[in-house]
């Protein structure tokens, strides 16, 4: 999906989630992340899905991938945070300047 408003909304949700998680005690910087470019897709079962690869401050797991996946189920905002996955990076054009959440 090539909708700038959906991509922008996806980034804002990821930034807000990082800030919320970062405020929890004993997070050890895991949620001080640098976000890549979101990939926003849609399917009939899950609706709009936002995926964003990220790098955690002080804990780069390259070549493995950290990925944030966000979608809505009914009135709920659902989130999956996958760290150190053996998957290919998202096929999204890289941001000229990655977005930092800290």
Helix content: 10-25%
**Rg (CA only):** 13 Å
Structural category is alpha+beta
Order of helices and strands: HEEEEEE
Q: What is the general shape?
A: globular
Tally of DSSP β-strands: 6
What ranges have pLDDT less than 50 throughout 5 or more consecutive residues? none
| Average pLDDT number | 80
| Domain module count | 1
Number of helices: 1
User: Termini, distance in Å?
Assistant: 28 Å
Strand content: 35-45%
Largest sheet: 6 strands, antiparallel
What characteristics describe this protein?
globular, six-stranded antiparallel β-sheet, 19% helix, 1 helix, 38% strand
What features would you describe in this structure?
The chain is of the alpha+beta class. It has one domain (4-100). Helices cover 19% and strands 38% of the residues. The chain has one helix and six strands. The protein has one helix at residues 4-22; strands at 33-35, 39-43, 47-56, 65-73, 76-85, 99-100. Strands 1, 2, 3, 4, 5 and 6 form a six-stranded antiparallel beta sheet that branches. It starts with a helix and ends with a strand.
What is the topological layout?
Layout: H1 4-22, E1 33-35, E2 39-43, E3 47-56, E4 65-73, E5 76-85, E6 99-100
Give me a quick take on this structure:
The chain has one helix spanning 4-22, and strands spanning 33-35, 39-43, 47-56, 65-73, 76-85, 99-100. It is α+β, with helices and mostly antiparallel strands and 102 residues long.
């Amino acid at each position: 999906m090539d909708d700038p408003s959906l991509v922008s909304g996806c980034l804002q949700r990821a930034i807000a989630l990082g800030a919320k998680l970062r405020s929890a005690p004993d997070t050890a910087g895991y949620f001080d992340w640098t976000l890549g470019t979101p990939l926003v897709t849609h399917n009939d079962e899950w609706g709009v899905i936002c995926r964003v690869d990220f790098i955690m401050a002080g804990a780069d797991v390259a070549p493995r991938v950290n990925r944030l996946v966000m979608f809505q189920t009914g009135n709920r905002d659902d989130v999956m945070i996958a760290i150190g996955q053996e998957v290919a990076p998202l096929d999204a054009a890289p941001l000229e300047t990655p977005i930092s959440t800290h």
